[in-house]
Specification:
By secondary structure, this protein is of the alpha+beta class. The protein has two domains: 159 residues, Cathepsin D, subunit A, domain 1 (Beta Barrel); 122 residues, Beta Barrel (Cathepsin D, subunit A, domain 1). The protein is 13% helix and 31% strand. A five-stranded mixed β-sheet has the order 13-16-25-17-24. It has a four-stranded mixed β-sheet with strand order 2-3-4-11, with no helix packed on it. The protein has a four-stranded mixed β-sheet with strand order 5-10-7-6. The relative contact order is 0.16. Belongs to the peptidase A1 family.
Length: 356
Amino acid sequence: MAPRVIFLLFSLVFLYLANTSHSLAKFQSFLHPIYKDKSTNIYSIPLSIGSSTSSEEFVLDLNGAAPLLQNCATAAKSTTYHPIKCGSTRCKYANPNFPCPNNVITKKRTVCRSSDNARLFRDTVPLLYTFNGVYTMDSEKSSSLTLTCSDGAPTLKQRTVGLANTHLSIPSQLISMYKLPQKMALCLPSTEGDKSGEYLIDVKSIQIGGKTVPILYGTTKISTLAPYTVLQTSIYKALLTAFTENAKIAIAPAVKPFGACFHSNGGRGEPVIDLMLRGGAKWRIYGSNSLVKVNKNVVCLGFVDGGVKPKNPIVIGGFQMEDNLVEFDLEASKFSFSSSLLLHNTSCSVARLSPF
């Protein structure tokens, strides 16, 4: 993987807010850093699993159902590694449909697997937590979580941590373990450094300079694995036309994979893009989240063509979420967002040890 710069000490990856008066809620919130690889535009978090003294990078997958996926041979080296046996309570909870052998001896030797056939095991994961308003990390207070591994040797992109709204994801396990409210917040850095569980919102239309871009039927997906927002072809073409017509910037030759580019030395006169959501809410996308700098003289509209018949007409990618604090209320199925933090003279690349 190409070299990257670790941009900060702390940046929110997930923040669980708890009622501080709850007798069981010793952990009032969890905090963990995100790193961005500029060469791939992939977001990852460093984690040390079990007794390992070194950390590995796990790609952040907002819609990933697997809590954490790594190589099984590596996982088994941990002195705190415990395979989850077939028929155990954890196995029944993780995968109720896993077929256990009838033979008692064989059953005890059989390792439980997840619905996607990954091995299930239990190990400790140290995470930053807050108690009485102070963030710290204590290996003796690591959370014992149900994790998954594969027999192959996963690449960085295959080594993932899933944050989907499923009962086995790490957020769900922590919420259940510490009796926390079912909320998760995510703040992506812009600098380097059965139920699907996917996060879906209802975008009714896109507005640019008073012109409305209609949306085809279908839900909008939010994904940290898509570097840029992906649009169905007709939406993409309409967006490019509306943006170009309203942009007070000189047009430059297009640079793949983008369809509209502009000269950056002619001033910034880009229009604001408004995603109009159900209920009247508006997600406003400013130039810092709409224009990608491809070289010192050219910026491009950071949206790409997803084809004629994609699964979702819109997939909001990581670039459009950078420096926006977004919160997922898992219990109420609600999505909240701050719009660009740059407007408030801060960003997700700023070290901050207290909740927003």
